[in-house]
Amino acid sequence: MQSIYHNTILKFPKIVLSLSLLVLIYLSIHIKNFNLDASSDALLLENDTDLKYLREVNNKYGARDFLVLTYTPIKDFVDDDTILDLKNLKQDILNLNWVENVITILDVPLFKSSDEPLMERIKSFKTLANPEIDKEQAIKELTQSIIFKNYIISEDAKTSGIIVYLEKDTKLDNFIKIRNSFIERQYSTGLNNEEKQSFKNFNKEYNDYRNLYNKRNHQNISEIRSLINKYQKSSKIHLGGIPMIADDMMSFIKSDIIVFGIGVLLFIVIILWLIFREIKWIVIPLCCCVTSVLSMMGILGLIGWKVTVISSNFIALMLILNMAMNIHLTVRYLQISKEKPELAILERINEAVKKMFLPILYTVLTTVCAFLSLIFSNIRPIIDFGWMMTMGLIVSLLVTFLILPSLLNILTFKSTDINKVDNNSHSKINQFLSYIATNNFKFIKNFSILLLIISIFGITKLKVENSFINYFDKDTEIYSGMKLIDEKLGGTTPFDIIIKFPSLKVKKNNTNDEFEEWDNENDNGAYWFTRDKIDKINNVHDYLESLPEVGKVMSFASIIRVAEDLNGKQLGTLEMSVLNSKLPENIKKEIISPYISVASNEARISARIKDSLEDLERNKLINMIETDLENKINLNKDEYRLSGVLIIFNNLLQSLFKSQILTLGFVMLGILLMFIILFRDIKLSIIGVIPNFLAALMILGIIGILNIPLDMMTITIAAITIGIAVDNSIHYIYRFKEEFSVSKDYERCIDKCHQSVGVAILNTSITIIFGFSILILSKFIPTIYFGLFTGLAMFLAMLLVLTLLPSLLILFKPLKNN
Q: How many alpha carbons fall within 13 Å on the CB side of residue 565?
């Protein structure tokens, strides 16, 4: 293998570089297809049954895409200037060709402004826009309304909500239905070869259209933001809604990719200069890093793999990890050049590659093991991130052993340059750490035990309760809009309870003794509207309103109570049936259809959770609601089902604990087995993994102690830390074995390792630590945590590898003296 590499790669560097350049050009052509994905599908659990049910509920009750504007005027809502301003804003929004309808405070009915009969008031209601309306009285009615209070207007009458319904994209809806159908079959019965090919072809078509939809959505959001800016002098307006959040997330991903990439690149240049103080040594590793990243982007574009907010840092990670490989190989080449100046350039390169191939290969394999552990998470973006980084590491490995040696071969260096670099590599820090490791084992042992105790304590404090709103910086519009909606307009996270009523039997042919099943499919409501159903809806509605975590609650009970208030008495079965049959279809579509389904014999109670509450515990809340529905409301298990974004998000959060255990367990076991294969010694392998496992546990403990919830980014820290940090152990032990075979003296070997491979470990660790620190520039809070804590974990791992690891080697003496 070594001779083949020597005779094909090292002897023909120009051919290798030329072929590599051709491959790079080919892959670069596909970078134009490099796409991002910020859709909700990219942040969901795989094959979640609650997600499937939510889609059924949305389809049944007519859910529509919409944007929300929070409108807080400088003057009061009773002021004519405010009314005119709001009218103009509504009209300008309606003029946008992608808007279907706009609902403002000027459009909602004022039922108490007239003494006409109930049905007449409903059919010909007046609004705040009518000139003859008493505006003071109208605002009072709206702020006390069962339906509109904390929904279309805040209770203090300072802020109102504007709902902007978007034109339905039927083509995208059909694509989503087809895609979901494929996915359901894939998980239930599996797909045959023909169906797999059809799914592959369909996915390409779906992704192309989704990209077009994302571009249109970005244009739409930019358009409405420009429009809103014209009205900011007379009011404070925030934009919200899923389409806006998706578009902003796309902007965050693009920004993160650019900022992380450029930031890490600049930092690497600085680090390389501090290490080598020579332009040529900076250019060669940078060429390798840039080649790796461009190749990977081309591969992703070629296979149509999209980058999400979770994987947006893959470019920074690839640069960091590729640079670590390059530094180890370069430093070893320089050391060989210093020790054996009589060797020709090709022989130096060959020896450096020979000595570093296995250590770097195993460091890549252990890091791959860490990223592959993420596939057990059952969370789509984390799985994709794992596979993406696995592929990226393989690309980086190939580039390191193809392009770096070829460039070294072509660009010869003077011995004076080598001497300069080697002298600069002598490290007082490593001398100090070597002294600590060989002379202060008791201190290191006590310090490590303390770290372990703190880790265990902190891990017991870990939690997954998190708020979507807290994923964003407080300066972002996403945070500002969601916070205002949460506090003033009834909450942000949708939550539904679907009540399923038992089947009815009705008299057959007006006889007293014959009954038949109620035909709910063709019933127009004559038999459906009964008092016991309404009472059951009322009980659930009132229960939800009593919970402090719940904001606005809407149901058919809301409409009935308004009607009863206006009618002055309770409505009976007949009156409710008549009301349902007499209502115009357009009004029924807005106030009845979203809350009852006669055909399915169901009712929907819609609520919103206050996501920004600091002590909100979703899982506890959901469990309490389920218990109370059975014990307090006396509903059977089969008479209700919880649904909504709250349930989907909670499922995602609860899966994080399981994911943490599975990923950490897999990576620990996998890396221990790799160490045993590499070093062929169980004792040496255990010694090698202890510092890294301790660093990973410590960082989880710190997260728990600081009361920071686990999220889709922070659950990957421990596994990734172990995967990257064990690289230091591999390089150290591999070099230690090499030195020990010569001197047979543990302390002397440790001192020599600290001043050779230890320098490379220190340099690469600093590069990795500060490379991860670039992630704090993100606007996505989980990414910031990921950068901070991974960097801290890498620092702890480096410290332990250069202190605890050599101390354990001296204590247990795993290598034989013979």
A: 13
